[in-house]
Write a structure and sequence with these properties.
The complex is a heterodimer.
Chain A (H helix, E strand, L loop, with lengths): L5 H21 L13 H6 L3 H17 L1 H11 L3 E3 L6 H8 L13 H17 L8 H26 L4 E2 L12 E2 L1 H20 L19 H18 L3 H9 L10 H4 L2 E4 L20 E3 L2 H4 L16 E10 L2 E7 L9 E5 H14 L3 H16 L12 H12 L6 H8 L23 H4 L16
Antiparallel strand pairs in A: 1-5, 2-3, 4-8, 6-7
Chain B lengths: L1 H14 L9 E10 L10 E4 L5 E3 L5 E7 L3 E7 L2 E8 L5 E6 L9 E3 L5 E3 L7 E5 H5 L17 E5 L8 E5 L12 E4 L2 E3 L9 H4 L26 E7 L2 H4 L10 E6 L5 E16 L11 H8 L15 H6 L5 E11 L3 E13 L6 E14 L4 E15 L12 H5 L26 H7 L1 E21 L3 E22 L14 E25 L2 E26 L9 E26 L3 E12 L9 E16 L3 E15 L10 E6 L2 E6 L2 E2 L7 E14 L4 E20 L8 E24 L3 E18 L5 E5 L3 E5 L7 E4 L15 E5 L2 E13 L2 E12 L1 E4 H8 L17 H8 L8 E3 L2 E13 L1 H7 L5 E15 L24 E2 L6 E11 L1
Parallel strand pairs in B: 1-7, 13-16, 32-35, 43-47
Antiparallel strand pairs in B: 1-4, 2-3, 2-5, 5-6, 8-9, 10-15, 11-12, 13-14, 15-16, 17-18, 17-48, 18-19, 19-20, 20-21, 21-22, 22-23, 23-24, 24-25, 25-26, 26-27, 27-28, 28-29, 29-33, 30-31, 33-34, 34-35, 35-36, 36-41, 37-38, 38-39, 39-40, 41-42, 42-45, 43-44, 45-46, 46-48
Chain lengths: 463, 989
């Protein structure tokens, strides 16, 4: 073997050293973090009080996220309002004319948000006992709060899917999806969650470890928040027709008729909105309007006051200078529910509780108690004359009238009420081709990946 | 690892012989001329084989170099000519070299390694090369658009007609469902960015909710269009894994290698090109003529009474798209230098206006390329370009707020007059949220990009003998880009006060910085005269950082554009960082100039993978065999080739994380579990491709035919599976599915007539591909919704099958529960056919581009129907007494296919008519002029398609969550396509 030429050898040696050192330098592996948000891993593996407290606030965001969806979609199904968005005809075609199908526009109606909320609540419950910087009392407070919001999400969704049933457990891996349970089983679970929450809240001491929004003013301690929990329990019991349980829950809630003022009606807890970046705006505020208009029957069906002027609650709709037209429907009756785009929206308030008590008493045959509550609403909310204490008319009609006008534009109560009382067919239709849906099918993403397909994976033609 | 490298190096050294010692030298002179014309060839490189000594021929073709004593072999190289070897006897002192022009580019060197190349004659893969004249023949806004119809197996579509472009390139069909599907662009060794950063118009249109920007809905410019097509010397399209394997886990979408022009030694050679152009609306949707007031009120409500006038018919497409732009371009380049220092400098400007008033795209750029010989062994090449791009693309695309211009046009009856009044004010649109003419006048959507791409390449011939050469090639560079966007919608616009917040402003800044460094050792070994082995070892490091920050203001105090004038402000920021490292090695063996063998492998690591330390190995192997003079006169040469290669496709940044969403409520921070579940163990997709084919040179070397078939199997396919919502998540990223893609490509290039005074050449390119999901570990799932059309990812089916609603035949009001197959989103085939005829000084060229098949949802048409405003609305429908438009708008939600259309088209893509001014005439006008040329050209002059309205290429967004990698299967209110015309003047001096 001959020797290499000296100069060439030197060059090669230099290159070898350079190359090897460059290579060695590059061999250091690089871990790049997630710059854009914290990871769920951190919450699961290293939970601390600050992270959990912030995630509890996420439950408020989750509960707020569905308010617009329920109020608008179910409001349209219940003929409280129309969405005459001129840029998207599907708010008319898909929600009033065509059958509802799993693959159709907007049948999700809170389904995805519900289980995202359940997952967030469940994750909190899974790790809260491992948080080193929580006291035992604080852990109870977190559990009571999280279970109340998990129950709220489930009971809201039960209204939408009704006899199709719902799922109670989330499965993040999607390997063993939670089974569908019946409507009754769903209510049993939601009620149990509210009752478990009650036990936790009673053991939670005098304050929560987290700070709540101004929408919880007066209800931000465990004992006061328990009154909200009981209010929701009362709503649930009325929803499933357990009238005596409803009255029991109302007794432990924040219901009051002691002062006959509009402010009394508004006592409750609220979703808050703000214009700051990352926050949300009131989804029902549409002053122009650009989408939302009232169904004309709202102003037509209103009762008159003694002086001939309409029920004060008719002020929830105002006449706009703008007329919207979509697919043949025209209207200039805009919603006038909220003063601005940051006005809070009630999660539950006293006006609903009084109506719940009236409804339970009607069902239990306690007519005079019911009339007393209905009159409170009629006079304070509507400025209407009270019913005589021996009023002999149909109290259910009276109840449904007051629920319609008191809870107009909130959560689609109207659609649900008409279904509960078998009166969906009486809802007005714009044209004979328009449909009234009694129930909403499941979204196709839920249907396609389950065998056998759940009961709710069907087309709903409506009536 | 270091030890491995040292051992390899040592091995190379041991196997080598002694470098040639210094011996006595002598002078050899000669001339280089072209065969046939006998014209002298300047700037030919003359090298003494086995040494690093050589020289260049002068303008008269003459050269004079010192060579060692004894017999030597001179290797003469010149771009556009096959290299020639001439033996110079020991006593010979002058030589004449004749080179033959390589019209078919058989001897072009194609890059096959990080630092090596091989003559096309021996190439074992199908690689398409596109030359400078093909790229810049007709003025085009971007290099990728200039490739349309010229590359077999590539689908290149323009997603918007807006000035400045916006294209999608798919090479050999889909290669991923979720990962990146765009090809990798490499300019002079620098991996450059083709990122698309949204402009922020979503804040106005709310097409994707209330977020400030949603790039998928904003038809953004893909930033490769910043490059100046006039600087391109050649483009190579590495289509398959076998060719692209050298780029490892970035290459599954193919690689486009762009080489820019470099200086030629000699006195300064100037080239000036200027042009003037214009464009016109290419396609009209037409609109309904309202026959009666009843029709008008049925569509537009009772207020139509106040506006209906049966005698007023305004063509809103004329009014809106009737701007007649004056487009201009100019470029100047100079090349020159000495044997040791060569330079190429260029500057260019291009100002293109749109057919919509106040829309434009302007580009300015300069480039400096310098080649410097530092010693007889070391050469340094550097290049840098500075690019400035400015545009305003108006307000187009999907819309939920009633202000997108093309969207709004679908809702305006022809009897309504929205034109500016004499007093300068604008009428209020009584039937919709905006007056689009007012919007055009007042909304600005300005984008400005500053970009610098710099590269350097150092070649060091460490030693060279007759038998062996060892070379170090190091190169790298950086691409630094800053994009700034400002969207402004002043308070007085009709739609602005509707949310109670008149006036909207958005300011966005995107900064992309990427750099790569490649270090290579190349060893060439020639043990015998008829064998050579080229081995290289290399490393590649790449880092990419992208940050986008945005802010918006609504309810602007004083109507100011500054964000702080907003009473409601929103901010948004997103960051991304990726670091990759790869090791590459390969050996190429050429035997008897007939058999060519390659084996190689690349190992890659990336910070985007779940395991950041793990190297993923991507091997490749290929072979080709030439059969010269197979059937002389008919088949002059046949080459058989077979190649196998593996490439990867990296996960995208962030896919390994499951985020906690950041939000706030009433001033308090809040976390929610995110909607997308990440995969902590995520790894690159692996694409295994086998490619086989043959190239034939036919008819006395007048033509070539290439035919290639390929099949790729993609495993560890990244999918975003739509999850059942009861999982708590909306989607999940995972590896695990498998997909098969197969296809064929053919190209023909021929010079049937080639005479000094007249010639004809023709090129045909054709490609097709099909995909199939071969393994899906999760249940099949829909991407998108049935009502508007979706893609179903399903085992045994095409990855681009389109599924939609339809009604059951027995019960017409009920739907098929799982939808029906509507068709295939991927075209059956694409092809191009270009012809050039030269008659004396006149030349004519035409390029036809055809797409067969493919399907697209025609959203613009649907919105004309929903606005009860389409041109055939009043035609009789299927049911007696029903209007056709009423039938369609009341049925499409149940029968999705109504608005899905065959997207086949044939386009007359490019036409040129050129005249070479006689040099005597040119010199009479200006004594320094050497040659001059005048050319009339057009792009997209005509097309044949059954697609109704708009452009079948304009796939401006994907349905719902259908990832861009599969397809954008919807056209909706895109900026309309136009025909463009140019008159160009070119002079060399």
């Amino acid at each position: 073997m001959r020797r290499l030429h000296g100069a060439a050898l030197r060059r090669v040696a230099v290159m070898t050293v350079l190359g090897a050192s460059a290579f060695a330098g590059a061999c250091k592996e690089v871990t790049v973090p997630n710059y854009n948000s914290p990871n769920v891993d951190g919450l699961l593996n290293r939970p601390d009080a600050a992270t959990i407290n912030t995630t509890v606030l996420g439950l408020l965001v989750g509960a707020r996220a569905v308010v617009g969806t329920y109020s608008q979609t179910l409001g349209i199904f219940g003929r409280e309002m129309y969405n005459l968005d001129q840029a998207d005809a599907r708010f008319v075609l898909s929600w009033l004319v065509e059958p509802l199908t799993p693959g159709g526009f907007g049948v999700d109606i809170g389904w995805s948000a519900t289980y995202r909320q359940v997952l967030t609540a469940q994750t909190i419950l899974d790790v809260v006992d491992k948080v080193p910087d929580y006291s035992t009392l604080q852990k109870e407070g977190v559990k009571g709060f999280a279970k109340t919001f998990m129950a709220l999400a489930l009971m809201e969704q039960l209204r939408v899917r009704d006899t199709f049933g719902i799922v109670l457990q989330v499965d993040p891996t999607a390997a063993k999806l939670g089974p569908f349970v019946t409507k009754d089983e769903g209510y049993v679970r939601a009620a149990a969650l509210l009752d478990e929450a009650k036990v936790h809240l009673n053991a939670a001491g005098t304050s929560f470890p987290f700070t709540l929004t101004t929408g919880f003013a007066g209800f931000n301690t465990p004992s006061n928040f328990l009154k909200v929990n009981r209010g929701l329990k009362a709503r649930l019991e009325v929803d499933r027709g357990r009238w005596q349980d409803a009255l029991t829950a109302l007794g432990e809630s924040f219901i009051t008729t002691s002062t006959a003022t509009a402010a009394t009606l508004g006592i409750g807890v609220y979703h808050v909105y703000s214009t700051s970046s990352g926050d949300a705006l009131n989804p029902m505020f549409d002053a122009a309007p650009r989408q939302l208009v009232a169904h004309p029957s709202f102003l037509q069906d209103v009762q008159r006051r003694a002086d001939g002027t309409p029920d004060l609650r008719s002020g929830k709709v105002a006449i706009s200078t703008t007329t919207l037209t979509s697919q043949g429907i025209s209207s200039n009756q805009r919603l006038n529910l909220y003063a601005s785009n940051v006005t809070p929206i009630a999660l539950i308030r006293n006006e609903e509780l009084v109506l719940l008590r009236a409804e339970a008493n009607i069902a239990l045959g306690n007519r005079s108690a019911a009339i007393q509550d209905l009159n409170f609403i009629r006079t304070v909310a509507g400025g209407l004359a009270p019913l005589p204490s021996d009023h002999s008319g149909n109290l259910v009609d009276e109840l449904l009238y007051n629920r319609r006008y008191s809870l107009f534009g909130e959560y689609g109560h109207r659609w649900f009420d008409m279904r509960r009382y078998g009166r969906l067919a009486t809802l007005p239709r714009f044209a004979p081709t328009h449909r009234i849906y009694p129930i909403v099918p499941l979204p196709s993403d839920e249907c396609n990946q389950r065998t056998p397909e759940p009961k709710g994976c069907v087309q709903v033609s409506g009536i | 690892m270091q030890r491995m490298l040292s051992a390899l190096l040592a091995g190379l050294l041991l196997a080598s012989g002694t470098a040639a010692g210094q011996a006595s030298t002598r002078q050899v002179t000669g001339t280089v001329t072209e065969e046939g014309s006998n014209a002298p060839i300047a700037s030919a490189q003359i090298q003494v084989r086995g040494t690093t000594t050589g020289g260049l021929s002068g303008e008269d073709g003459r050269f004079s170099i010192r060579v060692p004593g004894g017999e030597v072999v001179l290797v003469v190289r010149r771009l556009g000519y096959p290299p020639v070897e001439v033996t110079v006897g020991a006593s010979q002192s002058s030589v004449s070299v004749v080179m033959r022009k390589d019209a078919l580019k058989l001897d072009q060197v194609v890059i096959t390694g990080q630092a090596t190349g091989i003559s096309r004659r021996n190439l074992p893969n199908s690689v398409t090369s596109v030359s400078a004249d093909q790229v810049s023949r007709v003025s085009s806004p971007s290099v990728d658009q200039a490739l349309q119809g010229k590359v077999a197996g590539a689908q290149i579509s323009t997603s918007t007609g807006a000035p400045g472009g916006g294209n999608r390139v798919r090479i050999r069909g889909i290669s991923s469902i979720l990962g990146s599907a765009q090809p990798l662009y490499v300019v002079d060794g620098v991996i450059v960015s083709d990122v698309s950063i949204g402009n922020g118009t979503n804040k106005l249109t709310r097409a994707a909710g209330t977020v400030i920007s949603a790039a998928t809905q904003e038809s953004p410019v893909n930033r490769i269009s910043d490059l100046n097509p006039n600087d391109v010397e050649s483009m190579e399209i590495l289509k398959g894994s076998a060719a692209a394997a050298i780029y490892g886990s970035k290459a599954s979408g193919g690689v486009i290698i762009i080489t820019t022009k470099r200086g030629q030694a000699g006195k300064p050679q100037f080239n000036f090109r200027s042009g003037l152009g214009t464009s016109r609306l290419a396609y009209r949707n037409g609109q309904r003529k309202f026959q009666s007031l009843a029709d008008a009120t049925a569509a537009f409500g009772p207020r139509a009474v106040d506006f209906y006038d049966p005698n007023r018919v305004i063509d809103y497409e004329d009014v809106t798209y009737g701007h007649e732009p004056l487009n201009r371009e100019a470029s100047l380049s100079v090349s020159g230098g000495s044997a040791d220092t060569r330079y190429f400098l260029s500057a260019n400007g291009r100002n293109e206006e749109g057919i919509v008033r106040n829309t434009y795209a302007k580009k300015y750029g300069t480039r400096v390329n310098v080649d410097q010989r530092l010693s007889d062994r070391v050469e340094l090449q550097v290049g840098t370009e500075v690019l400035r791009t400015l545009s305003d693309r108006g307000l187009f695309g999907n819309d939920n707020a009633g202000n997108s211009i093309a969207y709004t046009l679908t809702k305006i009856p022809s009897f309504l007059d929205l034109r500016q009044k004499a007093d300068g004010s604008w009428p209020v649109n009584p039937f919709y949220n905006s007056n689009p003419l007012h919007t055009i006048d007042r909304v600005t959507n300005e984008e400005g990009v500053w970009r610098t791409i710099s590269n350097a390449r150092l070649t060091w011939d460490m030693f060279a003998t007759n038998r062996q050469e060892l070379r170090f090639v190091g190169y790298g560079g950086a691409d630094v880009m800053a994009q700034h966007n400002e969207v402004f919608s002043p308070p007085e616009l009709q739609y602005e006060p509707l949310d109670g917040l008149p006036g909207t402003t958005v300011v966005s800044d995107g900064n992309n910085t990427q750099a790569n460094l490649n270090l290579n050792l190349v060893h060439v070994w020639r043990p015998f005269t008829r064998m050579s082995a080229t081995t290289q070892l290399g490393t590649q490091y790449e880092r990419r950082k992208l940050g986008v920050s945005r802010s918006s203001g609504q309810g602007l105090l004083g109507g100011l554009q500054v964000v702080t004038a907003g009473t409601v402000r929103d901010i948004d920021e997103n960051r991304l960082l990726t670091e990759d490292f790869g090791i590459f090695g390969q050996t190429e063996l050429l035997l008897n100039d007939r058999l060519f063998l390659t084996v190689g492998a690349r190992a890659d690591r990336s910070s985007n993978n779940g395991d950041v330390g793990k190297f993923y190995l991507f091997p490749k192997a290929s072979a080709s065999y030439r059969l010269p003079n197979l059937l002389p006169g008919a088949i002059d040469e046949l080459k058989l080739r077979l190649a196998y290669g593996e490439t990867g496709n990296q996960p995208l940044y962030g896919q390994k994380f499951t985020p906690l969403d950041l939000t706030n409520i009433g001033g308090l921070g809040a976390f929610r579990i995110g909607t997308g579940r990440g995969a902590a163990d995520i790894r690159p997709e692996r694409q295994r491709e086998l490619e086989a084919g043959f190239d034939a040179t036919i008819l006395k070397n007048r033509g070539t035919i290439d035919i290639t078939g390929f099949q790729r199997n993609i495993s560890d396919l990244l999918i975003t599976r739509t999850l059942p919502p009861t999982s708590g998540y909306a989607s999940e990223v995972s590896n695990g599915a498998e997909m098969k893609v197969w296809g064929m490509e053919a190209s023909l290039s021929a010079y049937p007539v080639q005479r000094p005074s007249y010639s004809w050449n023709t090129r045909v390119s054709w490609g097709m591909n099909r995909s199939e999901i071969t393994k899906l570990p999760v249940p099949s799932f829909l991407l998108g919704t049935l009502q508007v059309g979706a893609v179903r990812i399903e085992k045994g089916k095409s990855a681009t099958q389109l599924i939609g609603n339809d009604t059951l035949p027995q019960t017409p009001r009920a739907l098929y529960p799982r939808g029906v197959l509507m068709g295939e989103g991927n075209p059956s085939w694409n092809g191009g056919w270009g012809n050039e005829i030269r008659l004396g000084r006149f030349s004519a060229f035409a390029l036809l581009d055809r797409q067969q098949g493919g399907m697209l949802a025609n959203g613009t048409w649907r919105h004309y129907d929903l606005g009860q405003n389409s041109r055939d609305f009043d035609a009789p429908g299927p049911k007696a007494g029903q209007k056709l438009g009423d039938y369609r708008r009341s049925t499409y939600l149940a029968v999705t296919s109504i608005y899905y259309q065959d997207a086949s088209y044939t386009k007359l893509r490019e036409v040129t008519l050129g005249y070479d001014v006689p040099s005597a005439v040119a010199q009479k006008l200006w004594s320094r002029a050497q040659s001059a040329r005048i050319q009339l050209s057009g792009r997209n002059l005509y097309w044949w398609t059954k697609f109704r309205g708009g452009d079948p290429e304009a796939q401006n967004f994907g349905a719902g969550n259908v990832p861009d990698a599969i397809q954008r299967n919807r056209e909706l209110a895109a900026y309309p396509a136009s025909r463009s015309f140019w008159l160009n003047f070119n002079v060399e001096f």
